[in-house]
Design goal:
By secondary structure, the chain is of the alpha+beta class. The protein has 8 helices and 5 strands, in the order αααβββββααααα. Strands 4-3-2-1-5 form a 5-stranded antiparallel β-sheet. A hairpin with a 2-residue loop joins β2 and β3.
């Protein structure tokens, strides 16, 4: 009897062990949970939605800036157009024809008869000017007159022989003295002398000349008379190609005939 009891005990032990092991290995709840977990993971797949970021590909729109830069080089070719400046090579206009030339006698209103030495070019205030260089031997003076302004200042050629005849005949006329203050008459005489007109100068010589039986001239009258006489004599000398003392005698002889 004792032998049979010992054999049954192990049989019970064998049945108990499989029953405990089965529930521990096959936990259906955990297995189901493992399968259910993957179903939630796809929800995280929404992260790829961030792929919308590439929409910022609008940045390349800034590529318009290079289009503006391309226009800048277009301005550069215009700069060489300034090369037209050399067209100002008009400056060297060759040999202009002037009314006066070197060696001519001319009358400058405020200085009388002078002789053109040459036509010169000088730079004045950055400008090239063509000038008449006039020498006045009597006054030992050199005058430079722009060729473009020679006529405007009253510079002229010597009077014609007909004008000389008219001036000499004027000396034979009767003096015309206005009844005004000497200061005013002196201004008028000086204006006639500086006019450069030979006949007007002859009028001053005629009006201020004093014959033997007439009262003497005042100092200022004498100065104006001598200035007018010298101006007239110089032009007569240049026209008739005689020296100045001879021309003075010719003028004074006309005045003597008037007095006679």
């Amino acid at each position: 009897m004792t032998t049979a009891v010992k054999k049954k005990a192990p049989a019970v032990a064998l049945k108990a062990s499989p029953a405990k092991v089965a529930p521990s290995k096959s936990v259906p709840v955990k297995a189901g949970a493992a399968k259910a977990a993957p179903t939630k993971a796809p929800i995280l797949a929404k992260a790829p939605m961030a792929a919308k970021a590439p929409v910022t590909v609008k940045a390349p729109v800034v590529a318009k800036a290079p289009m503006v830069a391309v226009k800048a080089p277009v301005v550069a070719p215009k700069a060489p157009v300034v090369a037209k400046a050399p067209v100002i090579v008009k400056a060297p206009v060759p040999a202009r024809k002037h009314e006066f030339k070197g060696g001519d006698f001319v009358v400058y209103p405020t200085h009388g008869v002078g002789r053109i030495q040459k036509v010169d070019e000088q730079e004045v205030a950055g400008l090239r000017l063509e000038l008449f260089v006039i020498a006045f031997e009597k006054d030992k003076m050199i005058l430079r007159v722009p060729t473009a302004k020679a006529k405007a200042v009253g510079m002229r050629k010597l009077s014609s022989p007909d004008v000389v005849t008219t001036a000499l005949n004027t000396l034979k006329g009767r003096a015309r003295i206005k009844r005004t203050m000497w200061s005013r008459r002196a201004q008028e005489y000086e204006a006639k002398i500086n006019s450069g007109d030979l006949v007007s100068i002859a009028e001053v010589v005629r009006d201020l000349h004093r014959a033997g039986g007439q009262p003497e001239q005042s100092y200022s009258e004498r100065q104006l008379y001598e200035a007018a006489l010298a101006r007239m004599a110089r032009e007569v000398a240049a026209i008739e190609r005689i020296d100045e003392p001879t021309a003075v005698k010719r003028v004074e002889s006309a005045l003597v005939k008037k007095a006679a």
